[in-house]
Amino acid sequence: MDRLLTLEMFVAVADEGGFAAAARKLGSSPPAVTRGIAALEARLGTALFHRSTRAVALTDAGAAFLGEARRILADLAGAERALRGAAAVPRGQLHLTAPVMFGRLHVLPVVDAMLAEHRELGVRMMLIDRNVRIVEEGIDVAVRIGALTDSGLKAVRIGRVRQMLVASPAYLARRGAPHRVADLKGHDLIGTMGPRWTSEWQFARTRWRLPAPPRLTVNTVDGVLAAAEAGLGIANLLSYQLAEAIDAGRLIALLEQDQPPALPVHLLFEPSRAALPAVRLFVEAMQARMRMAGLG
């Protein structure tokens, strides 16, 4: 029989004053406790209890051994608590990926706070505007914007963003503002190219196909944003990419009544990684960050 279990049985019998009471405390049976004490006594080569039909009492050897048994069990419990505590501390390398601008605006502040709090944690961030292969590329957590495919990965929804049309005050003063989707035909449009490039702009009730090619095409979000602020045309970007420029008055939202449904923002990771302290901490911190940014 397991040595630690027999020690637990011995202490329980001493504390409870009987085999039946000890069995109830341990969730065991009186015969199992009796066998456990007998095995312990055989291993030690001495009797630990005086037994009678009315009571169970410690022998001198049992009384001397009780203190040692309590110390052994206490030391084990302390070691287990220390190990659980150590396991709960985020440590090692956390591999993250996110779209470039989202990572800069919302993931990097979370990582900054995590690294300041947890000295044994390191982070590798891959900021890229494509959907990486999470398993093959060794990613712990990925930020995904938009509808998800059924991949077998665990998904935690942390917020939502909107697709928005914007232009600068200078452009609108020069060319006027579109009032309907069809009015876009008479405007300069800023297109994008790259992994997320599309020749159609989605609206609530229709799609608008961009001219081929648009008046201006740029391959980065920052480039599209800069072009729109410079008054070069109307851009179609996500709300988190535009928030600061709109708040500062450098860009103005257009056709808000025709905005398509919001896009979900998820964190994706393998189910086996869900219990990792660093992953749990990052997920919780990102949920708080999105709420604070009004995107939750």
Question: Could you list some keywords that capture this structure?
Answer:
single chain, 296 residues, alpha/beta, Arc Repressor Mutant, subunit A, D-Maltodextrin-Binding Protein, domain 2, 3 domains, 5-stranded mixed β-sheet, 9 helices
Quick gist of this model?
This protein has 296 residues and is α/β, with parallel strands linked by helices. It is built from nine helices and 14 strands. Helix 1 crosses helix 2 and helix 5 crosses helix 9.
Radius of gyration: 33 Å
**Silhouette:** rod-shaped
Going by CATH, the architecture of the largest domain would be 3-Layer(aba) Sandwich
What are the low-pLDDT stretches, counting only 5+ consecutive residues below 50? none
The proportion of strand residues reads 15-25%
CATH fold topology of the largest domain: D-Maltodextrin-Binding Protein, domain 2
Helix content: 40-55%
- The total domain count is 3
Counting DSSP E segments of at least 2 residues, the number of strands comes to 14
Topology:
Layout: H1 3-16, H2 19-26, H3 30-44, E1 49-51, E2 56-58, H4 60-87, E3 92-98, H5 100-117, E4 121-127, E5 141-145, E6 154-161, E7 163-167, H6 169-175, E8 189-192, E9 200-202, E10 207-209, E11 216-218, H7 221-229, E12 234-238, H8 239-247, E13 252-254, E14 263-269, H9 277-292
Parallel strand pairs: 3-4, 3-5, 8-11, 8-12
Antiparallel strand pairs: 1-2, 5-14, 6-14, 7-12, 7-13, 9-10
Helix pairs in contact: 1-2, 1-3, 1-4, 2-3, 5-9
